[in-house]
Amino acid sequence: MNLIKKYYSPTNSQLGVGGGGKSVSVLSPATVANVVCGFDILGFALSNPNDEVTISISDEVGVQIINQDDFNLPTDPEKNVSGAALLAMLEECPDVKGFTLISKKHIKPGSGIGSSAASAAGPVVAANYLLGNRFSKEDLVRFAMFGEKVASGVKHADNIAPAIYGGVTLIRSIFPLDIIAIDAPELYVTVVHPQIEVRTADARMILKQNVLLKNAIKQWGNIAGLVAGLIKHDYDLIGRSLEDVIIEPVRSILIPGFNEVKSRCKEAGALGGGISGSGPSIFMLSKDEETAKSVEKEMISIYERIGLDYQTHLTTINQEGVRLL
Ligand code: HSE
User: Among 167, 182, 197, where does a domain finish?
Assistant: First the structure.
């Protein structure tokens, strides 16, 4: 972190960006990264659950963090996902001394539905409103990726980009950023979160570093098929393409009941699905709400039988991303 800018001293009011007690609150959505075959390059935002974030400009230097939930997350901004994202933003705001952040998380850390991305995306979008929307969405993704780095050790944007842009996004590249919004059809999403924690950093560490060519061919066929299916609103093609021959075979062993959830939900009519992000949540896509409800029943019956606590979400794709409260 650049210490000169971090300790920049004029007051906000001297520089025209007043603290003045003004604050902005946003809802920052959960997201599903990877979307089965698109490891690190595809993601979509969920209508529920959301974190609540309130930001104000402060006359104190740096980022003050107030947590109003029970997750006990660090308040040192350099070790906190939201703090790291806001510090990256401050580096490019010589007229602002600092921010105060109040965070009320509803998305459990380690659940696999983009908890850290919601923590990173919400604050930078809210801060940008306070600053007159001086930054582009792409800039906000760039700042928020500093938060993801704190969470998982590497920058990736497949949760952050959909959280900020809404809808389904393809991240063709992160260096330089190349984000493509995909016009997907209406889809219902059922998510089950078996109550175990899988840290993204651990779930990345177990991945193989080499891929067989025959698997790579299958995977890029599926990614292309999924993107084409989404754009053409071709539900059958979407369903056929929801297959992962590279990441899922390794990570799914960490998730009790995974294979059964997948097969029974498909029998119940889901188009397909798989691990949400790095897990342990599992998501399924359905064409209509009735099917999504049947899928939820299957998920519930499996985890009741296994005897593992779980939480389900029946929701849709959130087209808006982070939104003002
Ligand atoms: N693409 C990332 C991973 C998403 O699967 O590790 C983490 O939410």
Answer: 182
The protein residue with its alpha carbon nearest to ligand 1, atom 7, reads: 277
- Check whether residue 57 and residue 146 sit in a common domain: yes
The reply to whether 85 and 124 lie within a common domain is: yes
Catalytic: 91? no
Q: Which of 34, 119, 208 to mutate to test the pocket of ligand 1 (most atoms within 8 A of CB)?
A: 34
Contact 222, 216 (CB under 8 A): no
Q: Are the C-beta atoms of 82 and 101 separated by less than 8 Å?
A: yes
10-residue stretch averages of pLDDT, the chain, 325 residues long? 30 42 93 98 98 96 96 94 98 96 95 96 98 97 96 92 98 96 96 93 93 98 98 98 98 97 98 97 98 98 97 97 96
Q: What distance in angstroms lies between residue 30's CA and the mean position of ligand 1's atoms? A: 13
Q: Which tokens is 255 given?
A: 């998730």
Tell the residue nearest (CA) to atom 3 of ligand 1: 278
- Is the pTM higher than 0.85? The answer reads yes
Q: Tell me the residue range of the domain where 160 lies.
A: 12-182
Q: Which has the closest alpha carbon to 235: 265, 266, 272?
A: 272
Direct distance between the N- and C-terminal alpha carbons of the chain, in angstroms, rounded to an integer: 31
